[in-house]
Amino acid sequence: MTRLLSSAINLFLVLMLGVGLGGCVSTRVPTASTSPWQAIDLKTQSNPLDIAFTDPNHGFLVGSNRMVQETDDGGSCWNERSLDLPDEENFRLISIDFSGQEGWIAGQPGLLMHSTNGGQNWTRLLLDTKLPGEPYLITALGKNAAELATNVGAVYKTNNGGESWEAKVTDAAGAVRDLRRGDNGDYVSVSSLGNFYATWKPGDTVWQVHQRVSSQRLQSIGYQPDGNLWMVARGAQIRLNNEDGNLESWGKAIIPITNGYGYMDMAWDEDNGIWVGGGNGTLLVSRDGGESWETDPVGKLQPSNFTRFVLDGDHMFILGERGSLLRWAGDTV
What we know:
By secondary structure, this protein is mainly beta. It has a domain at about 45-170: Methylamine Dehydrogenase, Chain H (7 Propeller), CATH 2.130.10. Helices cover about 5% and strands about 40% of the residues. The chain is built from one helix and 27 strands. The chain has one helix at about 1-25; strands at about 35-40, 50-55, 60-65, 70, 80, 90-100, 100-110, 110-115, 125, 135-140, 145-150, 155-160, 165, 175-180, 185-190, 195-200, 210, 220-225, 230-235, 235-240, 265-270, 275-280, 285, 295, 305-310, 315-320, 325-330. The strands form seven sheets. It has a four-stranded antiparallel sheet, with no helix packed on it. A four-stranded antiparallel sheet has the order 2-3-4-5, with no helix packed on it. The longest helix is centred in the first third of the chain and has 23 residues, at about 1-25.
């Protein structure tokens, strides 16, 4: 009888603990009454991975399973395109960029393509089999010029349309889970395990390694509009670099919600609103520098994980999984 009573008490305590923990993960974040985002149906189960435009209306979207789509209306409607690639190779098209009509696509495994006429035609370039890592990020820099970064932090530049490449880093950063390029040519990366981040600027021969701020592993890192860094860590933590020129000075952790889903990317809109996206349709915005947050009503309806924000001149998109895409409409919908 005593043993039965003890078991019942233990079960009750477990249930109460579960209820208590359930209360801890309640979002307690209000939902905004309107949204600046428009959901776009790409009619595919492939994952969109990058977007770039030749002008305000014409652009391309690339993604997994060789996906290429083209728009002529600023991204409201997209149509399938195909590249002249071997049928037996299933490429992951991970990065695209244009400088005017000069365009580049980087993909995995070992794919690099170049266009000189706004994407009407694409030429595949041969990459050295000894290239450290796989193509990860391509940046168009002007006539016949581009910069290619790989998923181990190797950085190369061409000034002759990809015929030859000059190594800019003598010692790569190691396997990365995230890598971004700033407007001034600086790079920042997160290690594959999320246990440190590294920075590189033109003129350096090696990456500079920085230890993470807390015990939480890093998910992604990038540049704020003022050039300082931001980071997202496991446990739904956001931190902002708060001292110009000091890449290891970080503010207190910002944790808008703890709903069990992590954040994967951040971005700032034209009105300096801070957006963060993540798992299971998590899309939040702060209009006061991170002090308070709201849930976006369009984002919460999407059955997808938001993986990346893309800002391309006049355009802003949120990329999700399984064909999920949100387009910045500006006027609230």
